[in-house]
Write a structure and sequence with these properties.
With 97 residues, this protein is mostly helical. Helices cover 89% and strands 0% of the residues.
Length: 97
């Protein structure tokens, strides 16, 4: 805005000043909206990354649990396989004897 002076302004001068002020205000509002939008986008990105990290952590945790279960069950499977092999060998031996 122009500094107030003691000379009266004409109607076109006042109208021109009003239009300049409106344009300046519009630009200011656009700049503020852009700043707010960036913040909102950044927050959305943080939420997205956080969600992805939680999903990955849950998947990794599940894989660890499954691997531990397989490791615990592996010796049992070997014992069961050994018993089956011994049973088959004994059955074969009885048939041939």
């Amino acid at each position: 805005m122009s500094a107030p002076d003691s000379t009266p302004q004409s109607a076109p001068d006042i109208q021109r000043e009003i239009e300049q002020t409106r344009e300046h205000l519009g630009q200011t509002v656009e700049q503020l909206a852009a700043k707010a939008d960036v913040k909102a986008r950044a927050q959305a990105k943080v939420a997205e990354v956080k969600t992805r990290a939680q999903v990955k952590a849950a998947e990794a945790s599940e894989r660890v649990r499954r691997n531990e279960a397989v490791r615990r069950d592996w010796p049992l499977a070997l014992i069961a396989g050994g018993i089956l092999v011994m049973g088959a060998a004994l059955a074969r031996r009885r048939r041939t004897a």
